[in-house]
Write a structure and sequence with these properties.
The complex is a heterodimer. Chain A has four helices and three strands; from the N terminus they run αβααββα. By secondary structure, chain A is α+β, with helices and mostly antiparallel strands. Chain A has one domain: Orthogonal Bundle (Arc Repressor Mutant, subunit A), CATH 1.10.10. In chain A, strands 1-3-2 form a three-stranded antiparallel β-sheet. In chain A, α1 packs across α4. Chain A is globular. Chain B is of the alpha+beta class. Chain B has four domains: 51 residues, no CATH class; 191 residues, no CATH class; 310 residues, no CATH class; 196 residues, no CATH class. In chain B, α15 packs antiparallel against α16. Classes of the chains: A alpha+beta, B alpha+beta.
Chain lengths: 109, 865
């Protein structure tokens, strides 16, 4: 298993929005999903995740409701709102530009 | 929408706090797996920080917390509060006076457009001379920037009829004067601006209307009996109406009635200067523009009237508000600055106290940081503690300030023109709020700055071994600043007290004790001789009253507010150009006057009953004039060309000097303004006359007998301005007493606060060093040595503070020059005393902590941790 690292600064919001875009998810689910997708490279800690969730909700990009997990426990589910979707698209584009630029810097002569 | 979800969150956070908290709790507990090494509470706190409502809500929280902490350490709070209350109280009191006197607009219509126009003559060099009627007419006609120009002269008049005649201050005004000020009368109307001079009409003051006419609502249109005619009342001014002129203008603020000038107004000589001119600027005209206009008007007048051209008359415009307070402004501003320094010292003290507490609370703060409080939150916490302290301090301070203002008013400050209107009002309260907030900033900032240097772990581990050096440096700097400010204040107060002492010691040219004075408007009689005989008889009957030692009369009582009479004189043998600039106060006196006032004769003789009208004209001059005009020679037998009063104005004539008396301070105790020329009443009669009666015991006891005597002679005459001569001297000393008393209070406060501050810092330092001191004592240091060591710390700070204070005091000394009298602004005695006072305050502050350190048992100190 690869060694896990801290999430890149500024990318946590993007990852959360992207993850929730698939389907409504609760906090543990989001953290778990990110870990799985990145093969355990990114570990999101509660101390970063929950403030971020509440912040995104405050900005109106996420909405929340209480529901039941597959195991039948009560949990708070987050869904992407309309403005959240366009924010995700914008952040995605932005990140791709940054990524491209970084690659050019690192690979270029 | 973004803001709706934010609002929803805010709503949940504030209104449904409990539900939100339990939800958060549940959410996090469900995710316990994620928490790993993070604390649940820490995560919660950072989630809460995300909320829109967080700032508001935790603000309330922090306030409650601040309140609790302050309440818990009551002795700290009490000292800090006392300090603040004194500082804020002093400032509230002074600012209410400053606002009322210097800042509040005059209660007239658009007061910013009102200005005074003063004449100035080369000959006199006086920048605030009155204007003649002709010059007034010319200004009014020629100016292009003035909407209107009015003039006033305050004399007196006697109301007759009723039970007792009464002489009051009556202002003669141009018909447009009152409408120019734009004050709506309480009853009737003011004079029509275009009405004729010499109309027999009168406008009463509210006070006179109430007092003498019982507030008769039908008074408008009635005639009121006065000596010399029965004018018709056209209106009554509103209650509280006052004239605001500088005291140098000799326009009393409490004029009782207004009458138009007589119809000979424009027939007077062009060089008879007595009008105080008030102008209203056209809308949109600035001061500079109006002054330019007046400059050109003055030059036109100079070429049109040779007499004014020769005197090189110029005109100066001064905004009415500014002019009214020009004499009092420097003292008030100095006191205001003094109060500011006291507040600064108070802030420094509280900053120091907070700093010490912050330092003692470092572990508490570190713990809170560990529990998830952000640095900003902690800073805010400290600032809020400061603000809470200040808030309570402000409320108590305003109360103290209000009591202070009441006390100030009781100092008999007649000269503070508007002081009667001093009160708590919005501007004052806003000022207090600003001061409070500012202070909270100042002393909240120091500990906050200090706390930003908190290193979490270091502080948790560290015991209370010693204060960090940075903290010590800051509080040492504050103490140095405090000593410096205190020194400056003590110097200021010392100089003011010496000034007051000098004013008490100065001989004004007469002996004010046991002299009764009153004014009397003389009855109309057929000839000068008859008038002279009437006065002679009257004086004789006064002298016959029991206990009376001497009686005399003068046209102008020294230090009284009667419009001054001064003019040029020319000694024999000098041309007019050579005599340019020779100007003197003119007075006419009866033969007994100098004796009644105990004014000393330097050479020659006083007037006597041989000096009659039609006889050889004689004058008495003061020693100032004699020395200046005939240096090294006797003035006796010399002749001067000077104006005499004649039935219809003034007329210059030659007169021989028969006596020289000491100089009398007519205008101010601290200055010899002008030399003096005295005429014999018989040769230069004037009315009204001010009588001086010398008698042992309480002079005022004689008043009923005098009234009875006068009523027997003429039931239509009344005495007024009944006052002991000492009252005039006292009120002349008023400004200096006022300044000295306040300066002394401020200095005492500063000393007290500085001592408290030094005490705080040193005792804190001692408690921090208790272990070190204990070790030293265990190693053989005697308690005396420990005591000296502690004191040395305080004295070093004091030394630096004194050096800086010395420099600061020298720097401000030139500002004080105008306020002090008979003492140098760098008076060695004052400096020495201030030095001693500061040393005493420092030793007082150091003594207790030092003694405590010396008494301590070394073993206790070492074991303490």
């Amino acid at each position: 298993m690869n060694k896990s690292v801290e999430v890149l600064p500024g990318t946590l919001d993007l990852m959360i929005l992207r993850t929730v875009d698939l389907r409504p998810m609760h906090g543990v689910g989001i953290a778990e999903r990110i870990r799985q997708v990145t093969s355990g490279v990114f570990i999101v800690k509660a101390g970063s995740l929950f403030p971020a969730l509440h912040r995104l909700e405050g900005k109106g990009w996420l909405a929340s409701h209480w529901g039941e997990t597959e195991e039948g426990r009560r949990a708070k589910f987050y869904t992407l709102t309309r403005s959240g979707k366009s924010q995700l698209a914008a952040e995605k584009r932005n990140f791709q530009r940054v990524f491209l630029a970084m690659t050019q810097v690192l690979e270029g002569e | 929408m973004v803001w709706t979800s934010k609002a929803k969150q805010f709503w949940r956070f504030t209104a449904r706090r409990r539900q939100m908290e339990s939800e958060l709790d549940e959410e996090l507990r469900a995710c316990a797996a994620l928490l790993e090494d993070e604390g649940m509470e820490q995560v919660k706190e950072s989630v809460r920080d995300q909320y829109a409502g967080i700032r508001l809500n935790s603000l309330g929280h922090d306030f409650r917390y601040a309140w609790r902490t302050l309440w818990k350490s009551r002795s700290f709070t009490a000292v800090a509060l006392l300090t603040l209350v004194l500082g804020i109280g002093a400032n509230t009191a002074i600012f209410s006076v400053v606002y009322a006197v210097l800042l509040r607009p005059l209660p007239y219509d658009r007061p910013e457009q009102l200005a005074l126009i003063w004449s100035s003559f080369q000959k006199t060099g006086a920048p605030h001379a009155p204007t003649s009627t002709i010059a007034y007419r010319e200004i009014r006609q020629r100016s292009r920037t003035l909407q209107d120009v009015g003039a006033i002269w305050v004399g007196s008049g006697t109301f007759i009829g009723g039970e007792e005649p009464e002489q009051v201050k009556v202002a003669q005004v141009t018909p447009n004067f009152l409408s120019l000020l734009g004050v709506t009368p309480a009853l009737g109307r003011v004079f029509a601006p275009d009405s004729a001079f010499g109309e027999h009409t009168i406008v009463l003051s509210y006070g006179l209307w109430q007092r003498r006419f019982g507030g008769d609502p039908q008074i408008v249109g009635k005639t009121v009996p006065m000596q010399g005619g029965n004018p018709t009342v056209v209106g009554v001014m509103p209650a509280g109406f006052q004239l605001y002129f500088s005291s140098e203008s000799n326009v009393a603020m409490d004029v009782q009635a207004f009458v138009p000038f007589d119809r000979f107004f424009y027939k007077q000589p062009v060089t008879l200067y007595y009008l105080r001119v008030v102008a209203r600027l056209k809308p949109g005209i600035g001061r500079a523009q109006a002054q330019d206009d007046l400059d050109s008007v003055a030059s036109q007048i100079r070429s049109a009237y040779t007499a004014l051209g020769e005197e090189n008359m110029t005109l100066t415009l001064a905004p009415m508000q500014e002019d009214a307070v020009r004499e009092i402004r420097p003292a008030l501003l100095a006191l205001f600055a003094g109060a500011g320094l006291v507040l600064l010292i108070a802030c420094v003290n509280v900053a120091n106290l907070l700093l010490e507490r912050a330092s003692a609370r470092r572990r508490e703060m570190a713990l809170r940081t560990a529990l998830g409080a952000g640095r900003g939150r902690i800073l805010r916490q400290l600032f809020l503690e400061g603000l809470t302290l200040c808030g309570v301090g402000a409320i108590l301070g305003v109360a103290l300030g209000w009591a202070g203002v009441r006390a100030l008013l009781s100092l008999r400050t007649d000269y503070l023109v508007q002081i009667r209107n001093v009160g708590l009002n919005w501007p004052v309260l806003i000022f207090v709020a600003a001061v409070t907030l500012g202070s909270a900033m100042v002393f909240g900032l120091a500990p906050a700055w200090e706390s930003t240097r908190l290193e979490l772990m270091e502080n948790l581990r560290e015991g209370s071994w010693s204060a960090a050096p940075a903290r010590r440096r800051l509080s040492a700097a504050l103490i140095v600043g405090e000593v410096m400010l205190g020194f400056v204040l003590v110097i200021g107060a010392g100089l003011m007290i010496r000034t007051l002492a000098n004013l008490r010691a100065v001989r004004p040219g007469f002996d004010a004790q046991q002299v009764l004075t009153f004014q009397l408007r003389l009855p109309p009689v057929s000839s000068e001789d008859a008038l002279f005989n009437w006065v002679k008889d009257w004086e004789a009957s006064l002298a016959a009253l029991p206990g009376v030692e001497a009686v005399g009369a003068t046209s102008h009582i020294p230090l009284g507010g009667f419009a001054n009479w001064y003019s040029a004189y020319r000694p024999e043998g000098l041309s007019e150009t050579q005599a340019a600039g020779m100007i003197a106060d003119y007075r006419c006196v009866t033969p007994g006057y100098f004796r009644a006032m105990s004014t000393r004769l330097v050479e020659g003789r006083f007037f006597n009953s041989e000096d009659r009208s039609g006889g050889r004209r004689v004058v008495i001059v003061d020693d100032l004039l004699a020395r200046k005009t005939w240096p090294g020679e006797s003035a006796l037998g010399k002749r001067i060309f000077a104006e005499h009063t004649v039935p219809n104005g003034f007329q210059p004539d030659w007169a021989e000097v028969v006596g020289v008396v000491e100089h009398v301070r007519n205008h101010s105790l601290s200055e010899q303004v002008r030399p003096e020329v005295y005429f014999a009443f018989a040769q230069s009669p004037r009315s009204p006359l001010n009588f001086a009666v010398r008698l042992p015991g309480d002079p005022l006891a004689l008043v009923p007998a005098i009234r009875k005597e006068l009523a027997r002679r003429n039931p239509n005459m009344a005495i007024s301005n009944v006052r002991g001569m000492e009252a005039y001297v006292e009120s002349a000393r008023g400004p200096a007493s006022f300044t000295a008393v306040l300066a002394a209070i401020f200095a005492a406060l500063a000393l007290l606060l500085a001592a408290v501050g030094i005490y705080g810092v040193i005792s804190y330092s001692v408690s921090r060093r208790s272990r070190e001191l204990g070790v030293r004592m265990a190693l053989g240091a005697s308690s005396g040595e420990v005591m000296r060591m502690v004191q040395r710390e305080g004295l070093t700070l004091m030394g630096v503070g004194l050096l800086l204070g010395f420099a600061a005091a020298l720097a401000v000394s030139r500002w004080l020059r105008g306020l002090i009298y008979g003492v140098s602004p760098i008076d060695p005695l004052t400096y020495a005393l201030a030095f001693a006072a500061i040393v005493a305050a420092t030793l007082l502050g150091c003594w207790r902590p030092a003694a405590k350190a010396a008494r301590a048992n070394p073993m206790d100190a070492i074991r303490a941790e």
